[in-house]
Predict the structure.
Amino acid sequence: MVDSKVDGEDFKGFGPVLNELIRARRTLQVFTPAPNDPELIERALELALWAPNHRLTFPWRFVVVEDSTRQRLADLALELKRAESSQKLSKAQELAIRNKILEPAALVGLGCLKNADPLVERENYASVACGVQNISLYLWSQGWGSKWGTGALTRQPQVYELFNWNPDQVEIVGFLWAGPYDRSPRVPERPSLDQFLARV
């Protein structure tokens, strides 16, 4: 666990390593089949709590999705895909939909605490996003990749029920898939900072 009282001066030497870690991290689409590592996931989630958190609202909510619940999520994902498809899904398509939920070593539900004040709610979402970056960077440093995914599944009432979350209090803002990987995705071309930076 990071000691919040340690002077930032002690970390100056980590700059080049952190620079490389940030640049190397990729969003994964394909994971290597592997068992979950609950301790690794817990360490990563704990680091999310050190993300910037305006007003100290502590908006993060996490659910580590166990195997039986993942099976139910996979069933629901397949049900949704069948409902929106004009043609019958092939066995290969059905398997791909299920494997998206079941194959990665770990699956975490991401929630954000709601607030009646739209500004606070926006700040809360920003804190969750910063937290996900902390999680993803730590996992990458340990040889695990991740993907923050959103989609129709995150908006289903059944998922709120599975997570025991009250939709009036918590918004599901995505799933985090995580696990080992064989090959890192290619590095996409990044634009120059000059395109986004102004000096006034």
Notes: The beta strands are 60-64, 106-113, 144-149, 170-180. The mean pLDDT is 94.
